[in-house]
Amino acid sequence: MNYYCSAKFTDLQVHVQSRLLYNCCKAYPERVDIEWLEKNPGKIFYTDTMVADRKLMLENKSCSSCHYGCYKYEEQGLTSERREYRNNKHISNPHAPLKDLKISLSTECNLTCMYCSPEWSSSWYRDIEKNGDYILNGVPVKQNTNWSVLWSKMKQKTRGTESKFFKLLLNEIQINDEIGTITILGGEPLLNNQLDQVLESVKDKKINIVTGLGVNKNRLQRILEKTKDRDIRFSVSAESTGKMFELIRYGVSWNDFQQNINMIKNNGNTVALISTISNLSVLGFTDFYDKFHDEHEIQINNLIGTGWMMPHVLDPKSKKDFLNASKHLHNLPQIRDILEMIDKTPDEKERVATADYIKQFSSRRSIDLEFLPKHFLDWCGL
Q: Which one of 31, 68, 191, 358 has the lowest number of neighbouring Cβ atoms within 10 Å?
């Protein structure tokens, strides 16, 4: 097995709220030692753990942090973020400069997207706290099983500690002048006032804001005023239309979403779409693609680690319907990727888990599922 991944040498994701460093975004994180960072400015990308992991990769050896997000899936014959990264550039310097920085400001989010988790969404955290775990195949399962391991070790941080780290992070950005792109994540970054500080203090970098657009128009307009005439890209999460969109990305209406897209476009900013392909999004992806592909880049994001929503967990007729509806698009790499994803027969355990999950998710939110295809509902036993 080839353990090398160039992302380990160029990418860093920082979770401000809990002072965690993910190198890369799927790796098991490490806590930031604030005192160490104060004494070692410019070294946020060169902790002892990160450098040691890169050296192991150069020796083609497994590093434990990457087993967490990639290697363990590959050992099961599944895909992984590492394999999807598809960057064959080989970097031999364990102290190579940081190129791409992702900043998760906080987990505050007003959406409960169906494939998300408490690790990244406060709405998901409140759902689990209020209603308990989801029971799939008779077993309690958190939306992201890695979350329970990671966050059980964490304690709530004071606002003062978070603010101190945020100031140090902004200083790190200034010092690491070879950073090319800064991607701002959440939760929902458009809800976080620290976004303004990033936009104001970092004006010589490309900025990419990843958002679900679940914000009101007044707030969005205020943010857009700060982004006009700047190289700021909005990467918007979406993969379906109408009621299917509102189910998968629960918490924002389809009409409001479209209006927010138009506001960003009219402001002169680039809008790209990130489509996470699950079994439910397959049911509506063709309509979504036909609606948006003429104006916006559409990037396919593979679902990893949430077995009950994997694209192949569909009834045969749903797969056939997608094949027929997307015939005019079969030469496109995005559609070929989806056809490959669904070309696997789900087992009974997967079918039951999907049915259990959709039933509980919709029940907790009083969602009427009648708009879903009858053959799919019958297959699920719903």
A: 31
107 and 120 in contact (C-beta within 8 Å)?
Answer: yes
Q: Give how far the C-alpha of residue 375 lies from the chain's centroid of Cα atoms, to the nearest Å.
A: 30
Top-tier CATH class for 104-380: alpha beta
Domain chopping of the chain, boundaries:
7-96, 104-380
CA dist., res. 6 & res. 151, Å (int): 27
Q: Is 187 left (phi over 0), alpha (psi -120 to 50) or beta?
A: left
Pick from 249, 263, 170, 255: which is nearest to 219 by CA? 263
CA Rg, the chain, in Å?
A: 21
60-87 burial by CB neighbour count: b if 16+ within 10 A, else e?
Answer: eeebebbbbbbbebbeeeeebbbeebee
Between the alpha carbon of residue 355 and those of residues 135, 219, 279, 282, the distances in Å are: 11, 37, 11, 16
Picking from 26, 9, 23, the residue whose alpha carbon sits closest to that of residue 84 is 26
Mean pLDDT of 259-267: 96
Specify the pTM. 0.89
Tokens 């698009």 belong to which residue?
A: 329
Instruction: Give residue-wise pLDDT tens across range 50-94.
Output: 999 999 999 999 888 888 778 877 887 777 777 766 566 889 999
- Please return the burial class of 206, using the count of CB atoms within 10 Å of its CB with bins 0-12, 13-18 and 19+: middle
DSSP-assigned letter for residue 330: T
CA distances from 348 to 78, 313, 354 (A): 18, 10, 10
Angle of helix 279-292 versus helix 316-325 axis, rounded to 10? 10
